[in-house]
Amino acid sequence: MTPRLIPARFKGKCRICGKAVAPGTAVWFAKHYGVRCEACGPHTAADAPLPSKKGNKKYPPAAVPELPPGQQPMTGEKAAQVDADGIHRYEFGSVTEAVQTALTDFAQSDHNAEFLRNRMGQALSGKDPWANRFTRDRFLSELVSPKSSLFEAVDKMRARLVESVELPSRPRRRIRHGQDTGEDIDIDRWLARDPYCWDRNVREQQPSRNVTIGCNLSVNAAARSADLLYRGAAALALADILTQQGVNVEIVCFDSVRGPTDVVRQGVIRYVVKAGTMPLDIAAVAFAMCEIAFFRVIGAVGGSKHWPGKINEGLGSAAQLPAADRRTCDYVIDSNVLGELAAVKWLGDIVSARTTEATHV
Question: Is the pLDDT of residue 257 over 50?
Fold first, then answer.
């Protein structure tokens, strides 16, 4: 226990005399021991720790990493803003930014900061099956250089998806009539002795297009790692198909959660995984889109640092994307796509729709 004299960030009361404490008032603070007013002095060995929260029984205070002396968690930083539709939103420009922010010690209240510090410590302890037993070092290492088995699984899934549907492989062509040479002759023009009686197939250069693919990474606590693996692989397979057709593909991921705090009805965090001007590198995005530990560590725990209000111990539940967020993407694979068969069906529906569209143009 290391008592520190700090300005109070929120309303509270002294644990000794019960005097109300207003934000900004100087108080003595010690982790797990609450606050004491300046008049009552710093904590002593006789002070009892705060009662354990029900949700923290599995993760005792001893497992919580200590902050360096004199350092306090930031609170009230980088808060999600509520939009007109009542949904709180926050956006990251890159995966790197999201990871750096998630691993920074802050939240919207002291209670949330301590709870999330505890939960992050457990998630990256190497013993938590919920986060695939990742340690912090292993997580950061595989984020940059994912293990080969993940590449193999994604490549295998992508190949199976591509093989399971009929993809348009012919370039779009136009028939030009009244040509001096060509593949087919127009009988009416020939009988009329028109020298320009040939029809010729011409491949027309199509203008470059921009397409955004959205992938909602949200899964509930009972989901298996394979559920998100196939969802991410399907989105990457579609991105690969469109890239081969000369389309500029942007990939964005979402964390859509229902009820993460007592204030947030639904929250949506948006991550730009690949900008449209960047080349598609499957290896660079596979971990973020296909490894369930990324969503649970960076999305569920890290994302909760942005929600105002008192955080719920279950971190909320997976939710499908609201209409406003879906409209920002051309294609969306949502939280209801779980497992291999659902992912194959989603990709088949998308490609079939594109094939029908190309046929009618």
Answer: yes
